[in-house]
Amino acid sequence: MIKSVKAEIVENKPIAPEFFRMTLKAETLASEGLPGQFVMVKVSPNLEPFLRRPISLHQINREEATVSLLYQVVGKGTRLMSETQKGKVIELLGPLGKGFTWSDSDRVVALVGGGCGTAPLVALAHSLLEDKKEVHVLLGAQTKEKLVCEEDFISMGAKVKVATDDGSYGHHGFVTDLLKNLMHDVALDMVYSCGPLPMTKEVVKLTQEASIPCQVSLEERMGCGIGACIGCVCKVRTKDGAFTYKKVCKDGPVFKGEEVMFDD
Ligand code: FES
Q: Taking the model in full, what pTM does it have?
């Protein structure tokens, strides 16, 4: 059942240029939300902007009954979010979609995040480490300034490596270069990925070549977020070798890497 939730903002502050973290008191989301799921945020009490914004669950704190959302200010909706003050109550739908999964046999895992796609990997790393997995985190950013969450992962106990486009921090180049190296050095049982499409494609290609299972969270524009508007379809392979279309908001946003068809 789709749940409409009212949540008080506990904190809403910038953590890097353009990036904000909003923490909400939200018992239902904290108790039911899973890494990889998302919420649709009503960014304004007014009708304008009309559409809600899809934002992934970034941190899930069951003890304190809070969840955090990490978002990048890219337009009117997210700018309004960034201006909303602590103490205000906002409306959300969620938790929505299907999140990341793991099993007992996934003992050594890598999380690959690019830009704002790093956000849901924080909740995922937290759950995986609680489950005693060995967690490697590979982060990509345009510049050192725009790198987010490195400290969150380190303080949890994950092994973190960073790549920046301009070489201002860590490896100068793509985060997928780091994945190639890691796959060479460590036997990975599963790779999880969230970030820009070219990065996601490359992660799927590399893991398929190495026969490592992979799960990717797709970043797609969404209208309703609940499977009603067909505004978020992606093409996926079926078992008989044909293809079908699935809704990123309802069937995803997390898919098996091998089922997603990227190129048309
Ligand atoms: Fe409406 Fe997915 S956003 S169907």
A: 0.95
